[in-house]
Amino acid sequence: MNYRLLISIGVLTAVSLSTAAGQSQKPAAAADTAPKKVAPKAAAPAAKKTFRTPWGDPDLQGVWNDATSTPLQRPNGQGKDVLTDEEAADFQESLAFDLTRDRRDGGADIDVNRAYNDHWMDSRRLKITSDKRTSLVVDPPDGRIPPRVPLPPDRDKIRVERAAANDRFNAGLPQAVTDFSLPVRCIIRTDSPPYLPTIYNNDFTIYQSPGYVVIQPEMIHSARIIPLDGRPHLNKNLPQWLGDSRGHWEGDMLVIETTNFKNYPGVIFQGGNRETYKITERFIRVDATSINYEFTISDPATWTKPWTARIPWNRIDPDEQMYEYACHEDNYDLVHFLTGARDRERRGEAK
Amino acid sequence: MRNRIPFAALVLLGFVWLPAAGQQVPANGQFPPYRPPRMADGHPDLNGLWQAFVTANVDLQDHEAQPGPHPEIMGAYGGEPAGQSIVEGGEIPYRPEALAKKRQNFENRAKVDVSSDKTWHNLGDPEFKCYMPGVPRATYMPFPFRIVQGSGPFILMAYEFTTATRTIRMNFKAEYPTPAWMGWNRGRWEGDTLVVDVTGQREESWLDRAGDYHGDEFHVVERYTLVSPYHMMYEATIDDPKVYTRPWKISFPLYRRMEKNVQLLEFKCVPFTEQLLFGNYERKASK
Q1: Cα–Cα distance, B201 to A52 (Å, whole number)
Q2: In the predicted model, is pLDDT for residue B13 greater than 50?
Q3: Are strands A224-227 and B154-159 parallel, antiparallel or unpaired?
Q4: pLDDT tens column, B32-85
Q5: pLDDT, average across residues A28-39
Q6: Please, which residues have CB within 8 angstroms of residue A158's CB and are 6 or more apart in sequence?
Q7: Mean pLDDT of B160-167
Q8: Which burial class, exposed, middle or buried, applies to B8 when counting CB atoms under 10 A from its CB (0-12, 13-18, 19+)?
Q9: Which of A102, A112, A239, B103 has the most Cβ atoms closer than 10 angstroms to its Cβ?
């Protein structure tokens, strides 16, 4: 049971974002075309005066949560981008059903696993985004990540090796620590951009001080320190697991560019290419209880065109706190996985 | 004549530098009165990248230079510098039985045994295994940390070592819900001093590589006081009635990192420990 739970944790982003039910709706008529222009529109003019730090920056400070059941990609690329109230209620109910223990299909084992996993899940992820969109991707207008370009042999080799490692893990036969994903190894979880909702621990605390914005994702207790003073990025020969971020204000919008990702499989989102991958994130305060978070990924060596997603961040109840998420310190399961695999080999279960 | 010109030049130089007279080499441990810059709320502005330069992470108490574990493979790389005690009065007031455990910790500091969940934490310095270091150890590890102080209800302390973070909840009442490696940190201002009350730390953390440790009634009260544009005095009062005979105190200055464009980098040490912790359970090539 633990084993299956950890599998779902290991591929947490993919699992949580790809299980949406196929919904077929009318093609989008008024789909978002220019994401950069969409975000500022979302801010009411009155907000500009209200949400300011004492030193005059837009105020993003607080504890926020990005959980949602809205899938990253619109199922099948069809249907409306924004639903009516009635459609939204149906969509939400159908997504929630797929994600919860209320399902009974698949046999007893799967059903029990579902119930066990449900215990860990953030109940906030049973709701679709408040703007009733059918996908987090807002550009391209079909709500789908653009097609991938064919990989050159060296990158395809890395992809194939990574897939083989995942297969060994899923078969209960990991050979080495490096067969586990970076989240399972407690090196990176949801703290590397882009920030996407997952099955649990979707909290972020934003701190600000003059000249800085600092984002502390719940997993794994790292702080992303973003200077706003226009200083250059770290030199190219100093890469980091979480990259190197620089920010600036465009009106009320915080714009962050991140570079210097470490050259290691799994560090860059969905196997993007380190030399051409560009991620730009935008934060804008919408009202007292929400921020709009958007990111645009451009990587012509991986996707045929740039794409943009938008995820609302909702302020959590001030009485609720974000607590320390430790990972490596009690990562007992790495030993369980490896000893289990050695045991299976001894019993001749390894192919 | 030839001698008089340099002399005149010296006089001239002296004259140029004389306006600085009154300044002198400061006495160690003493700072002239200082009024720090303020945030909008009137409290001192502690923002910045800070670092301790004591060797207390080797040993809080007096210690000789030493080879470190495994000199047969580490050579001088594993060596650790000598240092003077930062403990007020020099010695940590251990209960007799607790002192024995400290010595045992030291003997086992570079060993690990993760073969059973129940004994997972028993052997080895948590730093050796790349655990979040706890408080006050995080402050005097040989890595910088950034204080982020804004206008919200929290102050963040972000450490380079294993990218540990600590949320200081200002004027916060609630007690800790469950133990955490970096503890439950509640802050308040006493005049110009930030006071942080730390409870709820995981029992397994250590205070240094010498095996100094605490129990499950560990209580730390820290005091951060700016004393110049470039220095902050740090004090911590440490108590655990099960392990020590009385509360005890450490103090040392923190230094502001001044390099142009200096920033907190990553010391993500988990990958450095994976073979140490898990290597025995991997499939060996010979099989």
Answers
A1: 35
A2: no
A3: unpaired
A4: 999 999 999 999 999 999 999 999 999 999 999 999 999 999 999 999 999 999
A5: 38
A6: A265, A271
A7: 98
A8: exposed
A9: A239
Contact B146 A205 (CB under 8 A): no
pLDDT in tens, B110-155: 999 999 999 999 999 999 999 999 999 999 999 999 999 999 999 9
Residue A30 clears pLDDT 70, i.e. is over it: no
Is any Cβ of chain A less than 8 angstroms from the Cβ of B223?
no
A321: helix, strand or coil: coil
pLDDT of residue A78: 63
Q: What is the spatial distance between Cα A130 and Cα A289, in angstroms, rounded to a whole number?
A: 12
A209, A238, A262, best to mutate vs chain B, most B CBs in 10 Å: A209
From the list A176, A187, A242, the residue facing B270 with the nearest CB is: A187
Strand-pair partners of B167: B156
Q: How far apart are CA A278 and CA A28, in angstroms?
A: 27
Q: What secondary structure does DSSP assign to A155-176, as a single string?
A: HHHHHHHHHHHHHHHHTT---S
Question: What is the C-alpha separation between A197 and A89, in angstroms, rounded?
Answer: 20
The C-alpha angle with vertex A318 and arms to A313 and A323, in degrees rounded to 5, equals: 80
Q: Shortest CA distance to A252 belongs to which of A192, A295, A297, A292?
A: A292
CB A101 within 8 A of CB A113: no
Q: From the CB of residue B20, how many other CB atoms can be counted at a distance below 10 Å?
A: 8
Q: Global pTM? A: 0.88
